[in-house]
Amino acid sequence: MKARAGIIFLLVIGASIAMTASTALGAEPIKIGIIQGLSGPLEIYGKAEVTGFKMGLEYFTKGTNQINGRDVTLVIEDTQLQAARAKMLLTKLYSDDKVDLAIGPTSSGVALAVLPVARDFKKILIVEPAVADSITGKDWNRYVFRTGRNSSQDAISNAAAVAKPGVSIACIGQDYAFGRDGIAAYKEAAEKLGAKIVHEEYCDPKGTDFVAPIQRIIEAMKDLPGPKYIWVIWAGKGGPIPQLISAGLDKYGIEITSGGNVLAALKMMKPLDGMQGATYYYYENPSNPVNDWLVEEHFKRFNEPPDFFTCGGFAAAGAVVKAITAAGSTDTEKLIAAMEGMEFMTPKGMMKFRKEDHQALQTMFAFKLKVDPDVEWAIPVLTRELTMEETAPPIVNKR
Description:
Protein name: Extracellular ligand-binding receptor
Strand content: 15-25%
CATH class of the largest domain: Alpha Beta
InterPro entries: BCAA_transport (IPR051010), Leu-bd (IPR028081), Peripla_BP_I (IPR028082)
Number of helices: 12
Distance between the termini: 62 Å
Pfam families: Peripla_BP_6
CATH superfamily of the largest domain: Response regulator
Shape: globular
Number of domains: 2
Keywords: Receptor, Signal
Signal peptide: 1-26
């Protein structure tokens, strides 16, 4: 009887091991949806995000494309920067494609439109790279996390570059969520440091003629004592910087200040040698093994450095791999529990999802532009790293 019981026990254990192995081998893939503006004026951002996410997934899974032994499948969609289309696509990803979570989108206006979809389906949406404060502010819900920086993080770091008592600043930006939230946050941050915001201009995001708003700014500032700055916040192609450069601001003692941007935009900043500002990412600023790998591999594969939003996609991948690994599951509630307060590595260094609003706290980089005739763009030379504590935005949500 003892021998028979032992044989039965071994058979049960063997069957259990076989079933476990079979389950692992036949495990459903983890499905991740990506919605980005892959066409239109912000396509350079969206395409860099997708490239960065794929490279980040490769790096953080050590080339296996597996998390917890499960393959990862990406379903990538182009929002075309249209809010209605983005809502439709995210609904499709959650309902038809059965993705476990989603990443995106590019535009702040589009992001605000899709936040309720994540809430209705009770599925995670990692917002990357849309910036408006309201995404993790008044319009936030508990299924929304953001690896991208928000307007306040941009504003706090950029204000620190020039704002102090006696400084006068005018602001010019796009007339939609990104520009308005950005200027509101910048105004608050700059005035806390003692500067005075004397004028604000909001322009058509598709506009090309900035003569009138520039003249209004000059009229508001020309007779003020210095130092005087115009802070520019602009996303995508175009923008007022070239016309500001040719507007003869020097004779009024007015300087331009702005945040870092994609390499294409930094090319337009070559006349601004010495300009001060702060940036989310420039490939030469962070010093860590993750960024070293990204820079080296990006040069190998594309013969150019990773851009501003390549880092963003990479960071989102780091968050996804860490979250699913820690949760041991793709169950939404287990993911939320794992992600609240979670620290994860990125090319910028460590980020941390704040529990109260799921905004990723992160380092920002103060810079001074340097012009090198052998480099196509103005180089944001690092002057100081601003810690995640220094750039932490206000908490708006009361949970």
